[in-house]
Design brief:
Blueprint (H helix, E strand, L loop, with lengths): L7 H20 L2 H13 L11 H10 L4 H17 L3 H17 L2 H8 L21 H27 L9 H13 L3 H18 L12 H31 L5 H24 L5 H46 L15 H5 L8
């Protein structure tokens, strides 16, 4: 590997890697040998602070670009490696490899990832209890493993909602063209569902462990680099949907307005944490915060307008009631009489959006 082994843990890891490669060569079927070896090469125990070699990673991705059965075998082998290991470095490399599949993997490999396991179709990584207690540093890395697994799950879940892999660089131009038409024709509830799921990814990004451990750790640094790109990609997915809401804001029902306000507030609450984690300045990010403020102001104006509208309506009703009483001798409106309002929105919108 071109790097001198300096600790006993690294020596043991190197021995385990060689043993795993030898075992795979002996027990693997001819048709799965190459993919099992490819998985092992990108998820070695050592060097602990170095990400998988890009050459090995590209080889794994290319293997998954063949038949559906081969792609399925690659995902199964990778998941088996992830679930069997108790080593934080191996687990992080497995998760990083999954992240690369989402980011730049061939469609057929991404598709098999999205439906794993075959009997459930939900990619639950089951790492919430992961703990590598070898030393203080591996305990810290264990926290990264647990969080990174949750984040990958969030990414996969949102991708299912959107109908395509969020943050994938595959067919970006074609997808953007299709999405522009799709967003404009979406129902309000579908757009709200999309935004809610995308905001969930943003919120999970805000829970990334303390980045102070990044110094000198190239593995964690590569993870953060991918996360930064994901942040920008997610912002680019949220923007057109909020822009569409900006155009149809007055057409939203009260319930839809409340859901939108909640999503905007969650986004706004994430702003400070995001600026600390991701030191990146892009026009799209500034546009997002400006658009959130613009939507907030418009909602506030709609709220004030509806309150004033209702106030005028009630005043008008009192005046009409008074004039009718004087004219017709105090006619009483019975309890079973109905009063028709010009819009059901007037009464519904008496509830405010305080707390934004």
């Amino acid at each position: 590997m071109g790097r001198k082994i300096t600790t006993l843990r690294e020596l043991i890891g190197a021995i385990k890697d060689k043993a795993s490669l030898s075992k795979a060569a002996i027990i693997s079927k001819p048709q799965t040998l190459s993919l099992n070896l490819a998985v092992l090469r990108v998820t070695t125990h050592s060097p602990a602070a170095v990400p998988p070699d890009d050459h090995h990673l590209s080889a794994l991705l290319s293997l998954g670009d063949g038949s559906r059965s081969t792609a399925s075998a690659v995902i199964s082998s990778l998941m088996d490696r992830l679930h069997r290991t108790g080593n934080s470095t191996v687990a992080l490399k497995c998760l990083l490899t999954i992240h690369h599949i989402i980011k730049r993997g061939p469609f057929i490999l991404q598709d098999q990832l999205s439906i794993f396991p075959a009997n459930g179709g939900y990619n639950y990584l089951k790492l919430s209890a992961f703990r590598d207690g070898a030393n203080a540093f591996t305990l810290v890395l264990s926290g990264w493993v647990r969080w990174y697994a949750r984040y990958i799950e969030s990414l996969l879940s949102t991708s299912r909602v959107l109908g395509y892999f969020l943050c994938s660089i595959s067919n970006t131009i074609q997808r953007e063209k299709l999405e522009e038409d799709k967003i404009s024709s979406c129902l309000n509830q579908d757009l709200i569902r999309d935004v809610d799921s995308l905001v969930g990814v943003i919120e999970e990004l805000c829970k990334v462990p303390d980045p102070r451990f990044l110094e000198g750790n190239k593995l964690l640094y590569e993870i953060i680099t991918l996360l930064t790109n994901d942040y920008l990609s997610t912002v680019n997915e949220i923007l057109p949907r909020l822009s569409e809401f900006n155009e149809r804001l007055s057409c939203l029902s009260f319930g839809e307005s409340v859901e939108l306000v909640c999503a905007l507030k969650r986004l706004k609450d994430s702003k400070e944490k995001l600026s600390v984690i991701f030191i990146v300045k892009k026009p799209s990010i500034e546009t997002l915060w400006s658009l959130i403020d613009e939507l907030k102001d418009k909602i506030e104006k709609l709220k004030v307008y509806n309150k004033e509208e209702r106030k005028l309506l009630l005043t008008w009703g009192k005046n009409e009631k008074g004039s009718e009483s004087a004219r017709f001798g105090g006619r009483v409106v019975k309890s079973n009489d109905s009063v028709a309002f010009p819009s059901g929105r007037i009464l519904v919108n008496k509830l405010s959006f305080d707390g934004f």
